[in-house]
Design goal:
The complex is a heterodimer of chains A (about 120) and B (about 525). Chain A has about 120 residues and is mostly helical. The chains are: A mainly alpha (about 120), B mainly alpha (about 525).
Chain lengths: ~120, ~525
């Protein structure tokens, strides 16, 4: 059987330490403090009133179902700025099995040059 | 016979039984299926549970410091060829634990997930064959036998990937997989032939003891690394992986993760055990003169790893199909293991090296669990919604609460967030790789952050947001699927909370086995 002492041992990473149980305790204390601070907040929130409606710079609010940001729109800006990168790598991923084999041959050739010849 | 003697007999024969039970089970499954579905399901789960019993029995003894050998055929060395030998050291024991857990979860998950499909007798037969193949690859101490098990795994995997034959893309993915696997396996066979021609031996330990690092040995090394790295999904030979992972049923994908790692195990076995004695060889070529083989090999692995991590994570970020996204993330994760082991090779003989190898090995099991859980979640979503595109999902957390929790556990674990298991192995990798080159560590950390971004995208677009009109009737998945996901999630949390215990008891013996090949060699040369 595994003893409690063994379970509670701190994980030594060579130069550092990591103890998840201490981390969880710290996180729990942080949440507790946040919860206490939250108690000091204003209690003027009223559900289903004007104050809970979204404000979209004065534009009308769409139906809730239409407000969901779809997967292809998430990180749109990131994708746009890296369009050059994706252009290259999309080209590489042709979906053709002959190309897959070609990459294998190329890697084997390079490895042969590095290990076998040089 | 008392219980101790029975256990002792079981332990002695466990290397053979671990492969024999699923293999026999595979051939009996079609017969049992004739009775009824329940009998078949019960038979398959009993087969897998029995296999797992022997796996844990054997592993516990190996981790206590005993290397097991099991000889099929002639024990006398003067009778060549008529012999196959299984050798189980810390690394093999570590790998079979992964295969055991994955196969158990895959079978439990399949009960409900595949319920509506026909041809399930063939499905479970192939699953058991694949499990036997994987376990054989991890246990064998014979190069040709490794090739045979590699083929068994590949053929069974191909049929399972293309199991949904009514979907053209699945058949195409199966075709791609078998093409790549057949080519890879033929090159492995070619390398084995080169070694056999020179040393008149197929046993890994005997070969490792005699290897001279001739020109033919160099060719064999190149071919073995390239072929097995392709099967492991290293960039730029990874392209089959999103196709195969993305089209196979979710429970099959879980097993495919294990099959990929069996190839990864092959790469490590070749580098550290087969060529272990020659790692200190100084290269006598024109450009690389003065460099030791371990530095050259380590550098190659590190370069392949960094490219794999970067491309894997960047390609994952742009995917819309949930399973393809996880598949690219899995490619990136394989890069982390290569990075750690590559760093371990470049610093061989130092304390940093051992830490790096430990990190890499710990990450193997963490990756199998984390990525495996995410694939099961993707399967659960497909089961409930019949959708794989993130564009067609939203608000699923309202109706699939347990699946959402399992996804969150998988998300945090795969991205290396504390306090889960991915963090514990990645911190070992970051720290040791930093001492090799800080830039590598920075790239690895940044890519891990991007990996978090990848799955936050999934969490936002699939689970959060308002309820979608088409998905109003979505219900939580059946209990057997939840049980399989829960089993993996519990292990993830356990490994995350008690990393020191896991590293000391199962990772360290595997790392020791990898770092020092003399025990492996002497064990066999003493047996045959």
């Amino acid at each position: 059987m595994i003893s409690i002492d063994t379970l509670l041992e701190t994980f030594k990473t060579g130069s550092g330490l990591w103890n998840p149980l201490v981390w969880i305790t710290g996180l729990a204390i942080a949440f507790l403090i946040a919860y206490i601070l939250r108690g000091y907040g204003k209690k003027e929130y009223k559900e289903k009133t004007e104050q809970t409606k979204s404000f979209l710079s004065g534009n009308p609010e769409y139906e809730k179902e239409q407000m969901h940001i779809k997967g292809s729109n998430v990180y749109w800006g990131f994708m746009e700025s890296l369009r050059w990168f994706y252009k290259i790598f999309n080209k590489m991923h042709t979906g053709l099995v002959t190309d897959y084999v070609l990459w294998f041959v190329i890697v084997m050739g390079i490895l042969f040059l590095l290990i076998g010849v040089i | 016979m008392n219980i101790e003697q029975i256990l002792d007999t079981f332990l002695r024969h466990s290397p053979a039984l671990i492969v024999a039970i699923p293999l026999l089970g595979a051939f009996l499954t079609p017969l049992i299926s004739k009775i009824n579905e329940k009998a078949r399901n019960a038979f398959v789960i009993i087969t897998i549970l029995a296999t797992n019993f022997f796996i844990f029995l054997l592993a516990s003894d190996v981790f206590a410091g005993n290397i097991h050998t099991y000889v099929f055929g002639a024990r006398n060395i003067s009778t060549p060829l008529v012999r196959i030998l299984f050798e189980v050291d810390g690394l093999s024991a570590f790998m079979i634990i992964i295969a055991g857990i994955l196969s158990l979860a895959a079978v439990i998950y399949s009960w409900s997930f595949m319920k509506e499909n026909t041809g399930l007798d063939k499905f479970y037969t192939l699953m058991l064959l694949m499990t036997a193949g994987m376990l054989g690859m991890m246990l064998t101490g014979d190069m040709f036998n490794f090739f045979v098990f590699l083929e068994i795994t590949s053929i069974a995997s191909c049929a399972l990937i293309a199991f949904w034959t009514n979907k053209g893309k699945a058949v195409e993915a199966g075709f791609k997989y078998i093409t790549i696997s057949a080519i890879g396996a033929l090159f492995v066979l070619f390398a084995i032939a080169l070694l056999y021609a020179q040393y008149d031996a197929l046993n890994i330990a005997v070969l490792a003891n005699n290897i001279q690092y001739t020109f033919l040995d160099k060719i064999a090394l190149v071919v073995l690394i390239a072929a097995l790295a392709m099967k492991a999904g290293i960039v730029p030979m990874h392209m089959w992986l999103p196709d195969a992972y993305g089209r196979a049923p979710a429970s099959v994908t879980l097993l495919l993760v294990g099959a990929t790692q069996a190839s990864l195990y092959g790469v490590f076995r070749v580098c550290f055990t087969l060529y272990g004695k020659r790692l200190g060889t100084t290269i006598a070529g024109s450009i690389g003169e003065g460099i030791s083989l371990y530095i050259l090999l380590g550098t190659i692995l590190v370069i392949l790893a960094i490219v794999t991590i970067l491309i894997g994570v960047m390609m994952a970020l742009k995917q819309i199909d949930f399973k393809r996204m996880i598949a690219y993330a899995a490619v990136a994760e394989i890069g982390y293991m290569f990075l750690a082991v590559g760093a371990g090779l470049t610093t061989l003989g130092t304390a940093v090296s051992m830490n790096a190898i430990k990190g890499g090995i710990f990450h193997i099991i963490n990756d199998a669990l984390d990525v495996g859980l995410l694939f099961l979640v993707a399967g659960a979503i497909y089961y409930a919604t019949k959708q794989t595109s993130l564009n067609n999902m939203g608000g699923l957390a309202r109706n699939m609460k347990y699946t959402t929790v399992f996804f969150l556990i998988g998300l945090l674990a795969v991205s290396g967030m504390p306090p889960l298991n991915g963090f514990a192995s990645k911190i070992l990798i970051y720290e040791s790789v930093y001492q090799v080159n800080p830039v590598l560590s920075i790239v690895a950390i940044l890519c891990s952050i991007l990996l978090l971004a990848v799955f936050i995208k999934v969490f936002h677009s699939a689970f959060l947001g308002p309820e979608q009109p088409d998905l109003k009737d979505v219900k939580e998945v059946p209990k057997s699927m939840l049980l399989a996901m829960g089993l993996i999630a519990c292990i993830i949390v356990f490994f995350g909370l008690f990393p020191e215990m896991v590293v000391n008891n199962i990772v360290q013996p595997a790392a020791n086995a990898l770092a020092s090949n003399m025990n492996y060699i002497s064990q066999v040369t003493g047996v045959i």
